[in-house]
Specification:
Order of helices and strands: HHHHHHHHH
Radius of gyration: 25 Å
Shape: elongated
Largest sheet: none
Strand content: under 5%
Oligomer: single chain
Number of helices: 9
Helix content: 55-70%
């Protein structure tokens, strides 16, 4: 796994690679990020170092995690899972959509765990793991659907579907009783 020390600090090359993978022009990215065309060109060529604010705008425009962008630029240490985000961001075997999905899923899990820990610390005891699992599963499904949209890929189910409750089989006598009951009500 890549660590921050293993990652080159060439943020410009990283941004250029992300832009090329997203198949957008320099001009389009500059417009989406709210920076000038020449400034973005200088960043990509390593002539300028972007501020944290500009990195955030570029991350948003490129649909990547801001912490991953900060980590790549050397603004963050590898604390609290940022190495995972960096590894996702630099993995050449993943598409841009897959990188975005994995990053969103990871961050969702982290936020949910922090929320549960805060509830447990506060002593509320209201953390319902079933609803947490359902919420997280829905988020994973939404992200996976968004990542595979337009790629022709069929996402694998995120979790095993819940078993349907067993239905009671009706007998002819049950059906006759139900019909008689319905007729009484009419």
């Amino acid at each position: 796994m890549a660590t921050p020390k293993d990652l080159p600090r060439d943020i410009g090359g990283f941004i250029r690679d992300l832009r090329n993978n997203a198949q957008i022009s320099l001009r389009q990215l500059a417009e989406q990020a709210g920076v000038s065309n020449p400034y973005l060109s200088q960043i990509e060529r390593g002539l300028r170092k972007p501020s944290a604010e500009v990195l955030q705008q570029l991350a948003t425009a490129l649909r990547v995690s801001t912490p991953a962008m900060y980590l790549r630029a050397g603004l963050l240490d590898d604390k609290e899972g940022q190495g995972v985000l960096a590894a996702i961001a630099v993995d050449p075997g993943l598409t841009m959509a897959q990188k975005q999905s994995l990053t969103q899923i990871y961050e969702t899990f982290r936020r949910e765990n922090e929320r549960l820990a805060a509830e447990a610390e506060a002593g509320t005891g209201t953390a319902d793991e079933t609803s947490t699992t359902e919420t997280t599963t829905e988020t994973v499904d939404d992200v996976t659907s968004a990542a595979t949209a337009g790629t022709g890929a069929t996402p694998a189910p995120a979790t095993k579907p819940a078993a349907k409750p067993a239905r009671k089989r009706s007998t002819p006598a049950d059906r006759a009783a139900t019909a008689a009951e319905e007729e009484k009500q009419s």
